[in-house]
Protein 1
Amino acid sequence: MGSIAGKWKARVLEAAGAVVDLVFPRHCVGCGGAVEDDVYAFMCAPCRADLYFIDGAYCRACGYPYLGMTAADRVCPNCRELRPVFERGRALLLHRGLGGRLVVELKYYKGLFLRNDLVRLIGRFGDLEVYIGDAVLVPVPLHPRKERERGFNQSRFLAGLFAAVADGAMVEDALVRTRDTDSQTRLRREERAGNVKNAFAIAPSVTIRSDKTYIVVDDVYTTGATLNACAVALLKGGVRAVRVLSLAHG
Ligand SMILES: [Zn+2]
Ligand SMILES: [Zn+2]
């Protein structure tokens, strides 16, 4: 009896799913076309071929891949210039193709609907569990005014998804943005560092734990200026070790 009821239940759910797909067709965030397989809900197979996973050798400091190289411990030219205070960095995708599109969906269209696809994508990276360990994940904060306008902090959303892959990891809003900085998008590399310098501080109610590694989470790593400014604030606040983690790099 139980199994027949179970089968019916499965059929009803399947039919309901088909109806939902009919009423709200699942469109690919890459091309706008219908998504026909069941692996990912909002990324069609041809567009997924346009995801550039960073899972080979990469810069130890920021996570940028060494395309075609194998030296895992080297530091990229950008990091030699930036001299980041964070000790390590990891990113999952290159910020191009569908990787760039995902960042846009999260930042400007509150891509909450991408949750399951992102969880699946994050799950591909077996090394993340060790990288995140039992760290404290700290989202790059938005200025309160901007967060009110946007109603969503994409870095906090991602931090929650990342924290779920490792036992003991937690998300804490340990930083606040003390200045409403200009958007980094239109600034040149050398202007970016000045724009975010001293823009972050430890949130007033937060107690820093000296036994924990802190990982600053952002949607995209561009020059590293924002993440480095966050790391400076955490270290000033007594954090022992800071790492960074972003969805996309480039
Ligand atoms: Zn597509
Ligand atoms: Zn680097």
Protein 2
Amino acid sequence: MSDILKKDKEFVWHPFTQHATERDPIVITSAKGASLYDEAGNEMLDMISSWWTCIHGHAHPKLNAALAAQAQAVPHVMFSGFTHAPGAELSEKLAQRLPGDLNRTFFSDNGSTAVEISLKIAYQYWKNADEHGRTKFLAFDGGYHGETLGAMSVGRGCGFFKLFEDLMCSIESVPYAHTWDGDTDIERKEEEALAALKNKLSVHKHEIAAMIVEPLMQGAGGMRFCRPQFMKQVTDLVQAEGILVIYDEVAVGFGRSGSLFACEKIGVVPDMVCLSKGLTAGYLPMAVTVAAQRVFERFLDQDPAKMFLHSHTFCGNPLACAVALESLNLFEEEKTLERIAHIEARHREQLPHLQAHPSAAQARVMGSVLAFNLRGLDDAFKSIESVTLRDWFWERGLNIRPLGNVVYLMPPYCIADEQLDRAYAGLFEGLEQLARRAA
Ligand SMILES: Cc1ncc(COP(=O)(O)O)c(C=O)c1O
């Protein structure tokens, strides 16, 4: 056992890990592009972009250079009473790229804090207008928004957080219209979901501060896609009641859906957007909650109590902002959206094979994401079967990590055709393996 592994086993407490039963972690010593390398030099293709973050691939020279240059200038300074070039420029750039008046960036550290902040802004937005009855949030069944208490509350429908339910804040939930390629029942599902939403709004509209959604793709809940027109109708219905709509684009933002942001593809201007993961291209923990100017203005007052009552020590960290700025530049320099369109086309070539496979169901592609369900496999998150399958992929040099019975690819955008071919071959080999076991 290597020295690193010994130290890890003695001192580290890993996320989402049952240390009594989990296999030893893989020690990664270097990473480049779409590849990770272990201590023995074995290559593993990072087909899920290390929890969906490293959008341009690992150790990109331009991102490395931006980070190093910022470290020489200002690595960190508190963000209350002080500002700096990468923070101001990144906020400007996000405002330019996001639609409508989404132009006020509040910084934090991770996807959960971005969500928590959006919920607190929504709550205080109504308090600042002396409307005190809006104490609930509306969310979709099956949604996931992170691990802090507010985020768990609005994500309770994903089923991960039963243990913590007594601690949660009050929410209402509505059904989501999940779809896939070749789904013939989607019109009915959408009609039913919209009818349930209308019903919910008619009863609870004066109690709800905001609705939070993962637009176009429920990620951790199982890569469940919906159609843009459905999400637009939902957004329009909720905004028509004056209720704020929060787009949690932590997973889908920065190109995953094929557009830079899902709200762009849907054609709406939500009241707030949460971004993280791809924001710093997987380099540093940072998130933003971008609010519409009209939301921001509700907090302007001579009374200090009306300011937004929230801060984090590392708000607006300059190193993270500098990398995020460079990452946005790369979208133009490397024509990243074209690369994503190419990945989508490659994924789509796999669809007929998946649709014809007896072990796969509900095959679906959106932007750089390919997903399908495995027939007959336990759908519980981290079920023994899904962990066995993950280990099987790992042994074949592919970082593919099923979510219960859902297998998906979400590669870095720099991935080469030959690397995609290796991943597809591994997927189909895995499917054959399962089919043989079932026979
Ligand atoms: C849609 C969504 N929101 C929020 C989060 C939470 O982000 P983090 O893990 O950075 O706290 C995630 C994480 O997967 C996510 O997918």
